[in-house]
Structure formats: C-alpha cells, structure tokens
Amino acid sequence: MSSADLAKLVFVSAIWGSAFVFLRVAVPEMGLWLTSILRASLASVALVAFTILTGLPMQWRRNFKYFAIVGFFANVVPFVAFSFAALHIPAAHSAVLNSTVPLFGALLSVVVLSERLTMRLLIGLLLGIVGVAILVGAGGLPLNASILMAVAACLLGAIAVALASIIVKKTGNGGGIHPIVMAAGSLTLGSAAMLPALPFSLPAAMPSAPAWACTVAVALGSTGLAQAMFISLILKIGATRAMSATFLLPLFSMLWGVLFLHEGVGASTLVGGMVVLAAMGLVLAGPRPRPVVSEAKT
C-alpha cells in the first residue's frame, strides 16, 4: 500500500471517529431519526451538487439498482441496527461488534470476489477485533433476550456494511461507477428510504445552533466526504483492506473525546491502541489479495 493510500485510510478513520463528538451534541436535541435523515440527506445533496459542478454523470437509470442496493445496506440497515442496539447495550460493546466488519468483509470477499484469505490476513483481522475489545474495555453483559437481540442487530449492521463494500468493489470495477457518483446515489436513495419516519421524529422544541452545526458537520464531513473517500479506497486497495479502517475508528473517537469532551483515558486505551496498530500492520502489509484462479484443463 502506498503512503498516500495509508494516509487516506487514517484520515477516513479520523473523520468517522469525529462523528461521535458531533452526534453527542446533535442527537439529544435533534433526535436519533431526524439526525440520521438529515445526515444522509445533506450529504447526498452536497455530493450530487458536486457531481453536477464537476460534470460527473450520475446515470440514474443505469445505476439505480446499484444505488438502491448500496444505499440500503450501507445506510439504512446500519442506521436502524445500531440505533436499536444503542437502546440495550453500551456504545463500547457496539464498537466492538462494529469491528467485525473487516472479518465479514474478508469472508464475503472469498465467496463473492474469489479473493484468497491468507493466514496473515485472518490473524490480523482477529487481532484487530481483540484490540478494539481491549480498547473500549468491553466486559460481560447479562445474556437476556434484549441483549442477544441487540448483539444480533449489531452483527447484522456489520454484515450489511461489509456486503455493501463488496458490492461497491464489484460494481466499481466491472460497472465503472465513479466513487463519488456511487456515494451520491446511494446516500440519496438511502435517505429517501428513511423519509417516511420524518413526521414521527420531529423534536418538540427548535434545536440550538450548535446542534444544527454539528448535524451539518457530521453530514458533510463524517458522512459525505468519508463515504466518497472510503469507496475510492475500496476500489484501489480492495474491500478487506479498506474496511480495516473500522479498527481505528474507536481509537479516534476516544481521542476526540479526550480533546473535546474531556473524557478520561485508561490503561485499556493504550494497550488496545497498540494491539489495533499491530493488527493494522498485519492486514495492510504484504501483497494485495489476488483472485483465486482455477488451473486450466489440458
């Protein structure tokens, strides 16, 4: 991987992690659904406007199916799944479960993209999950029905994100859909799918200026810009490597929490951070996974 791609991967993780700071301010006043709808809608408007200004063809009729599929799996399912989980389990546990995205992505890449799952890659993915678990200090939870349903919801969200990444990789290479076009189209249809919930999610009082500002920031930066850059990484370095950005996301969210929310840092943060960095090294080092090629019959 080039230094430019690595820098882009770290930057995507950083702006994704900043979303937690913005959401801590926005969600209590805007509400969960309104924040999610505005987040996707504002991001889609900005990206569609960018495609118009730069002359990138959206080709809605040709790409509608791909926009709808990616929008559903990359936006609607994760938003709903992790929102449900937030009602029953701590955010730390959701972060650990979210870190399974690269693992599901690697497995799906083997099935859908015929990529080789090397031992180095598998060890790196599993080590990354362990590192995130240490990082957020995940502990035991009572195993009741609501907890198990929340865990299942998080895993469903992780699988959806992984599947969306695989679809982007497949359509981007064969279908030739530009990363910004894919991000704009999928966010547009994803936000449209959530619009029916808007009348039931309006806040009782007008949100404050900081809440609006944070909503705009998370929409344009942590959603629009991040998704466009993430899709370009998928097409360039592969889905599995790009999805390893989720390992660094909890680390950056804690960093921004320390800097802007004055949250404390324990020993688990330092140890987990080192384990995560080691896992990133295993996942990103070495040759890019190649498709499995069947031997020609003679």
How would you sum up this structure in a few lines?
With 298 residues, the protein is an all-alpha fold.
Protein architecture, described:
With 298 residues, the protein is mainly alpha-helical. The protein has one domain (3-284). Helix content is 77%, strand content 0%. It has helices spanning 3-30, 32-54, 60-86, 91-98, 101-112, 119-135, 145-174, 179-194, 209-237, 239-243, 245-260, 267-284. The chain is globular and about 45 Å long. The model is unreliable at 291-298 (pLDDT under 50).
Instruction: State the distance separating the first and last CA atoms.
Output: 37 Å
Cα radius of gyration in angstroms: 19 Å
The arrangement of helices and strands along the chain is HHHHHHHHHHHH
Q: Quaternary state, please? A: single chain
Instruction: Count the E strands.
Output: 0
Q: By helix and strand content, what is the structural category? A: mainly alpha
Q: How would a crystallographer describe the biggest sheet?
A: none
Our count of helices gives 12
Transmembrane segments: 7-27, 33-54, 66-89, 95-114, 121-141, 147-168, 180-198, 210-235, 242-261, 267-285
Domain EamA: 10-136, 149-284
Keywords: Membrane, Transmembrane, Transmembrane helix
Main location: membrane
